[in-house]
Design a protein that fits this description.
Layout lengths: L1 H24 L3 H54 L1
């Protein structure tokens, strides 16, 4: 899932570049304004995805650290019984 989100973020960046081209090439003020607004919304979407990805990665790190701590505590208990 994490890799797929990264792929989507990369695709959003490519689309944003194409949107910049469309905005620059368009002679119609109305269409240009619509492209600008669409680009802003797409950029916000990409930023939201990036933020969610970072949050997910942080949660994963926290979970892994907690698991390691629990394993270490369990090992210490087992060692205590051995002695």
């Amino acid at each position: 899932m994490q890799e797929r989100i990264k792929e989507v973020i990369e695709e959003v960046k490519k689309i944003l570049e194409k949107m910049d081209d469309l905005i620059g090439e368009n002679e119609s003020e109305v269409l240009r304004e619509q492209f600008v607004e669409l680009r802003k919304n797409l950029e916000k979407f990409g930023e939201g995805l990036q933020e969610e990805l970072e949050n997910w990665e942080k949660e994963n790190e926290d979970f892994c650290q907690q698991t390691k701590e629990k394993i270490q505590a369990f090992k210490e208990v087992v060692e205590g019984f051995k002695n």
